[in-house]
């Protein structure tokens, strides 16, 4: 598939023969993508708080019902990710993002209207959560694939840093806005605010002007079947040492994090007796940390190596939640501790997100970007519905404090998996996509014989 990243770009020349721009912000299409993605993420993060808080505070949902609500919202990751990846690689990403923005705006607008008249109950919330979750899968895969088509390869880390920074800003504003509106005004107003952000994203992304061409096909040939495209994506990820490890580590984290968050959303209002506004602020505290993580992610991998940043940041961000079960009461000290936990989690998580995305994009050919992103999303996030259900079950059987400790400890499986793999030894330079197309048997054998470091020195960038 044609993209902004081409052999000419390796020499600092764009497809048009002109020198490639030195700054991302001189690229008007990247600015439009960034603004639209920022608005979209803000609406998404607001809705992720609005729906659970509405269920807990207004409908008095129990632990099992809250777990079911979160599971339904996450189910599209498991059900749709692989198909979405195959479709996105055959579609124009701009069209995909625009349509999903329209769909989410209409769904939340209808929910706001139904809530205003008192028609929004738990069944309606379940349907809304599934619809928004399904459309978000399309948008998230599309914007990741779109970046590769808009910027040069050596700008991927900076581009991901900017996009993940905007997601961090959404983590600040979204939960705080959603929690405050549900607590102070009403759930319909909170839902309507999310719909407005998706409308803003639509207006920005539809103005992207860079043409996207569908993959060339031989004359009189039929398009590949979806199952064949999915199989190619699965096989590609399975053959890449780096991407296999990312899948396993992501699956361990997402499963445990989904369980932990289900318990956490019950622990804060019921065990610590915090209001909806304070809960929103505690969740939003990850935003400032993630903003800092985005800035550091553009520099730390080049100084310490991508592998060291991945393992260290994951251990820091995931391990900090082990302190939360020790908190008691709703004092200022408790709130300050929750804000600190959120900040550290956001910092570590953002370093991991940006670095992993840069590695994944670097080792993946342009025509495989959507499927590689979707495969990792499927494997990594496919277990989140089960994690959410498990969190609700543990909360009912073991109590909130014990369940929170167990699920938080489970999150540490992710940095352990990365630390025990060749991914931890990735160097300062990103591996090339051409290395990812070959089975990395020689480096892996060298690593298994204890000579991985010398192999990395012979080929900068580590495993592909």
Q: How would you briefly describe this protein structure?
A:
The chain has 464 residues and is mainly alpha-helical.
Your description of this structure?
- It is a single chain.
- This protein is mainly alpha-helical.
- The chain is built from 20 helices and no strands.
- It has helices spanning 28-58, 63-88, 93-116, 122-150, 156-184, 187-205, 226-239, 241-271, 276-284, 286-297, 300-304, 306-319, 332-363, 369-381, 384-398, 400-410, 413-419, 433-436, 441-448, 452-458.
- Helix 1 (28-58) runs antiparallel to helix 4 (122-150).
- It is globular, with a radius of gyration of 22 Å.
- It starts with 27 loop residues before the first helix and ends in a 6-residue tail after the last helix.
Oligomer: single chain
What is the percent of helical residues? over 70%
> What is the end-to-end distance?
21 Å
Shape: globular
Radius of gyration: 22 Å
What order do the helices and strands follow? HHHHHHHHHHHHHHHHHHHH
Any low-confidence stretches, pLDDT <50, length ≥5? 1-21, 218-222, 434-464
User: Biggest sheet, in brief?
Assistant: none
Number of helices: 20
Question: What labels describe this entry?
Answer:
mainly alpha, disordered N terminus, 20 helices, disordered C terminus, 464 residues
What's the layout of helices and strands?
Elements: H1 28-58, H2 63-88, H3 93-116, H4 122-150, H5 156-184, H6 187-205, H7 226-239, H8 241-271, H9 276-284, H10 286-297, H11 300-304, H12 306-319, H13 332-363, H14 369-381, H15 384-398, H16 400-410, H17 413-419, H18 433-436, H19 441-448, H20 452-458
Helix pairs in contact: 1-2, 1-4, 1-5, 1-6, 2-4, 2-7, 2-8, 2-14, 2-15, 3-4, 3-6, 4-14, 5-6, 5-9, 5-10, 5-13, 7-14, 8-14, 8-15, 8-16, 8-17, 9-13, 10-13, 12-13, 12-17, 15-16, 19-20
């Amino acid at each position: 598939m044609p993209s902004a990243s081409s052999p000419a770009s390796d020499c600092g020349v764009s497809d048009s023969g002109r020198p490639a721009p030195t700054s991302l912000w001189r690229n008007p299409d990247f600015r439009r993508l960034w603004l639209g993605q920022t608005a979209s993420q803000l609406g998404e993060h607001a809705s992720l708080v609005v729906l659970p808080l509405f269920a807990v505070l207004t409908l008095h949902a129990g632990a099992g019902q809250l777990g079911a609500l979160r599971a339904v919202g996450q189910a599209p990751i498991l059900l749709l990710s692989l198909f979405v990846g195959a479709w996105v690689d055959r579609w124009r990403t701009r069209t995909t993002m625009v349509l999903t923005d329209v769909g989410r705006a209409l769904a939340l607008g209808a929910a706001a209207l139904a809530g205003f008249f008192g028609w929004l109950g738990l069944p309606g919330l379940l349907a809304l959560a599934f619809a928004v979750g399904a459309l978000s899968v399309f948008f998230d895969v599309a914007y990741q694939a779109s970046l590769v088509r808009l910027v040069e390869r050596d700008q991927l880390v900076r581009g991901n840093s900017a996009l993940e920074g905007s997601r961090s800003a959404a983590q600040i504003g979204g939960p705080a806005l959603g929690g405050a509106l549900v607590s102070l005004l009403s759930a319909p107003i909170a839902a309507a605010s999310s719909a407005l952000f998706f409308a803003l994203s639509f207006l920005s992304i539809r103005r992207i002007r860079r043409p996207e061409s569908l993959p060339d096909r031989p004359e009189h040939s039929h398009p590949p079947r979806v199952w064949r495209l999915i199989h190619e994506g699965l096989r590609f990820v399975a053959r890449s040492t780096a991407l296999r490890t990312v899948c396993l580590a992501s699956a361990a984290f997402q499963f445990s994090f989904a369980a932990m968050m289900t318990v956490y959303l019950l622990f804060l209002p019921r065990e610590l007796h915090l209001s909806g506004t304070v809960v929103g602020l505690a969740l939003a505290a990850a935003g400032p940390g993630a903003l800092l993580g985005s800035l550091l992610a553009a520099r730390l991998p080049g100084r310490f190596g991508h592998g060291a940043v991945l393992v260290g940041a994951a251990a820091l961000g995931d391990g900090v939640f082990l302190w939360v079960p020790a908190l008691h009461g709703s004092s200022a000290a408790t709130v300050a501790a929750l804000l600190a936990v959120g900040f550290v989690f956001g910092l570590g998580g953002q370093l991991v997100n940006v670095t992993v995305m840069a590695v994944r994009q670097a080792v993946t050919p342009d025509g495989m970007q959507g499927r590689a992103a979707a495969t990792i999303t499927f494997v990594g996030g496919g277990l989140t519905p089960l994690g959410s259900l498990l969190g609700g079950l543990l909360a009912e059987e073991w109590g909130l404090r014990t369940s929170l400790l167990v699920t938080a400890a489970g999150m540490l499986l992710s940095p352990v998996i990365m630390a025990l793999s060749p991914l931890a030894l990735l160097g300062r330079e990103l591996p090339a996509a051409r290395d990812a197309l070959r089975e990395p048997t020689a480096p892996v054998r060298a690593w298994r014989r204890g000579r991985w470091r010398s192999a990395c020195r012979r080929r900068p960038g580590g495993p592909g």
